[in-house]
Amino acid sequence: MPPDDAAVLTVSEVGVRFGGVAALNATSLTVHSGTVTGLIGPNGAGKTTLFNVISGLQSPDRGTVSLFDTDVTSMRPHLRARLGLARTFQRLEVFGSLTVSENVQVGLEASGGRWGRIGRRAGLGSTIESLLDRVGLTEAGSEQSSNLPTGLARMVELARALAIGPRLLLLDEPGSGLDESESAALGALLTSLAAEGMAVLLVEHDMELVMRICDHIYVLDFGDIICSGGPDQVKGDPRVQAAYLGDGAPSRGALPRGESNGSATPVHQIPEPDATSTDLGHLSTRPEGRGR
Amino acid sequence: MSNFLQYTVFGIMLGAGYAIAATGLVVTYTTSGVFNFAQGAVGMIAAFCYWELVVASGLPVLAALAVILLVGAPLSGLVVERVLMRRLHGSTAERPVMVTLGLTVILTGLATIVWSPSTQRTVESMVSGQFGLFGINIQYQEVLLIGVAAVVAVALRILFHSTRLGHGLRAVTDDPQLLAMAGASPNRMSQYGWMLGLALAALSGVLLAPTQATGISIEAVTLLVVNGYAAAIVGRLRNIPVTFAAAIGIGLAENYVINYLLPHLPQNLQPDITVALPMVFLFIALVTVPSVRLRAVGRLTTARAPRVIGGRESLVAGVAFFAVAAVLGAAFNNTPFDGTTILSLGGVVMSLGIVALSLVLVIGYSGQITLCQFAFMGIGAFVMGKTAGGGSLLGLLAATVLCAVVGGLIALPTIRLRDLYLALATFAFADAVATGFFPDSHVYGSGGVSIGRIVLPGISFGGDASEFLMVTFFFVLSAWLVLAIRRSYFGRRLVALNDSPAAFATVGLNIGATKVVVFAVGAAMAGLAGALYGTVQGVVGTTDFDFFSGLMFVLFVTIWSVRTVTGAFLAALTYVVLNQVSPNWVGLFAGVGIILIGRAANGILGIEVLRVPLPWTKATSETMSGEPASLLGVGTGGESRAAG
Ligand SMILES: Nc1ncnc2c1ncn2[C@@H]1O[C@H](COP(=O)(O)OP(=O)(O)OP(=O)(O)O)[C@@H](O)[C@H]1O
Ligand SMILES: [Mg+2]
């Protein structure tokens, strides 16, 4: 990582407890503009919790978060967004009764300020279109967004996040629900966003994708950053292997951690947790039977 | 000193009664995720059944208790869960609220039919006698009540924390899917929860009945149990020991306020404060208890969103609607009907229609559950009557503006409250206003306030038809406004807030500000509606803005469809017509309606087979197939989502 890059996000010593469970212990990390930073770790490691702390949906018990050189630890979520932070969610949070373009439009209008929308009304339609093009939703603009399959709904969230013109983008498992070629397209998009100067922090279980596009990777396990570095460095680290294979580490609560059959699977071949995990986060992305 | 002791013992006893009801609420909430607004009504029904069995039929006390607590209440819980609640789990927040509120109004309505309020019914203590202690007299009944509450608390504690069943019961709201994976059935747990919850409601009703020295009244017993709501809120709807302690605290506070504080207040305020006290406690509990954090819950709107009506279409429909109203106005000018006139009933429909439109805006679009629109209506009518001698356009303006301000002020302390908590806060505000403020002799008192008809220089609205058309004009204007809001930037914001507060905040939108604005606009509309209602009726009083009627009306709107303007109009129309025919029909409609709410997310108008495609309706996303073409160039696999 080039040291001259300004850090857009600095998380230092953040701790979060839920009842008796420590979801994060003194976690620290830094994200620089113009890079894709990976945040990986087994189920229940605390990745989503860290995203919630950064975006203001969860206040940390200790530690600080600073965005673009401003301490935001106790700032409300919408004010952080106005500083240039955008995110997507692991459990879908699309505006389901709005159409796909309206989802993006809300993002554009939110960032345009109260009166900004009037100035950009003329260009609004084309701005929405180009954002939808970018995430591969060209033809879906008029679709009610709750009618979309999971993978595409994630892309709606991504387009909406891009609409606010963020300097830092947090993506929580954007690749789940996408097939191979779709996730290749996603990888290319993220790389190009970084090339434009955006900072991307990516949580993803698709190791192949993470290893390919990330400049820097942090590995979180049981709320601790156990290792960080470039893709090759992380891939080879024995602690990472151990964390993923769960070598006798106590299982957390009722949520099984990835695969724990003890076979020597290399990190980058770890199966998609979607297929095997009983994690509720994944279940919840399938809305059948919910919310009826 | 002995007075103080006496008040304390009585306070603890009342608190023990509330505690039983409150723990019942906690049990149902933790097992089914539904806050049972009907807890008070169930307690009331149990108290009246007890009177019926023991006093009227001469059954032994124990037999009556067995019938009510071991058979009647659990059986009702079973039926309620199976018929009304089962499909509500995880649905939008307003539906469970509406169903249990509906149950409340239906049960109180039924009770009024079965047990005529004109008869006095006193329930004697189950155990008679008293004993002296530290110079005060303690009734055995008081000891019994406190003892039963203690036994209930301990038993529930053991049930929840030391039995397998208890762990299952607790797991349901935490994560039903997790529970399902562990092999237990969330439905079964929720069924047990409802049976136990209603049995506890009945127990509290039966035990509190003898405390009503002047006899049990439907409204009083229902609202007595409501004291338990505040306690359950303090216990965050899950902590039974805290709930229990809070209930005792509320019982004590109530007694101390009534006996020590009240005598120092003006005479005419005393009864108002006494009746409003439970709601004041509830409101305080809600705005002071730490709020539930904003969380990304991943809840998805699976129902199809109603079509967004275009600008031209809404204009054309509005003009057409007004034209039809004008024809009807000419045809029925000054036609008497059933003690009133047809057009005056029509005016009532239109003014209530405006209230319903405010509900579309606040509940339907933005998802903020408000139950206090009738209170704003009453305030609006009062302001209208008191401004410039009544019957002036200035009054309409004053009513609208003042209600906007009050609405915004109510929203301020409740900004951080979500869903159910907001519903409870507005519930408390509505009841406090209806029972504590309106009956005051300075407000409506017993005589009511005369509003007078609007007189414009040159044009007289004295005639029947012109009055009707003026109110219709305001209805059409409001409908156009609501639809215009939906199409606007602000409307998209409201819908977005409803769909996902977490995403709303993280794209940079201010939840608090949005809520205050939508509340203020909704209150302003209700205030305007109240003022217009006043001019139609001439004289209005407390009964026009009755608390239970207000709940019934919200229910009607939800049954028809709280997300469409058509639903708002049909709700107002059926509400007025059925009320004119007989209140029993209102109850029947509501009864069938609450069964329907669990099955049709968007009310009657949301049911697919009933949708008639209108000739001028353009094809929109809702009429397209739910399966979009593959967009990233590759098939989407089996993941596609079934629509609504
Ligand atoms: N709201 C909450 N209440 C209680 N515990 C929670 C809450 N949110 C998360 N946890 C717990 O905190 C820990 C970290 O969860 P988190 O969702 O951050 O993990 P994650 O790394 O995102 O996992 P996954 O890969 O499954 O998404 C888990 O043990 C989880 O059960
Ligand atoms: Mg996660």
Question: Descriptors for this entry?
Answer:
heterodimer, A: 292 residues, alpha/beta, Rossmann fold, four-stranded antiparallel beta sheet, globular, B: 644 residues, mainly alpha, ABC transporter involved in vitamin B12 uptake, BtuC, two-stranded antiparallel ribbon, 6 strands, binds adenosine-5'-triphosphate, binds magnesium ion
Notes on the protein architecture:
The complex is a heterodimer of chains A (292) and B (644). With 292 residues, chain A is of the alpha/beta class. Chain A has eleven helices and ten strands. In chain A, helix 3 crosses helix 4, helix 3 (100-111) runs parallel beside helix 5 (150-163) and helix 4 packs across helix 5. Chain B is mainly α. Chain B contains 23 helices and six strands. Chain B has helices spanning 2-32, 39-56, 61-85, 94-114, 140-162, 164-174, 176-181, 186-208, 218-234, 240-261, 270-288, 311-331, 342-365, 373-386, 393-414, 419-437, 464-487, 489-499, 501-506, 511-537, 547-560, 565-581, 583-597; strands at 130-133, 136-139, 336-337, 340-341, 449-450, 539-540. In chain B, strands 1-2 form a two-stranded antiparallel ribbon. In chain B, strands 3-4 form a two-stranded antiparallel sheet. The termini of chain B are far apart. Bound molecules: adenosine-5'-triphosphate and magnesium ion (MG). Magnesium ion (MG) binds at residues 47-48, 90, 172, 281 of chain A. Adenosine-5'-triphosphate binds next to strand 2 and helix 1 of chain A.
- Which architecture name of chain A does CATH use? 3-Layer(aba) Sandwich
Read across the widest sheet of chain B, the strand sequence of neighbours is 1-2
- Sheet bearing the most strands of chain A, described? 6 strands, mixed
- The sequence of SSEs of chain A as H and E is EEEHEEHEHHHEHEHEEHHHH
Structural class of chain A: alpha/beta
Structural class assignment of chain B: mainly alpha
Under the CATH scheme, which architecture of the largest domain in chain B would be assigned?
A: Orthogonal Bundle
Looking at how many chains there are and whether they match, the oligomeric state comes to: heterodimer
Spatial extent as radius of gyration of chain B: 26 Å
Largest sheet of chain B: 2 strands, antiparallel
Shape of chain B: globular
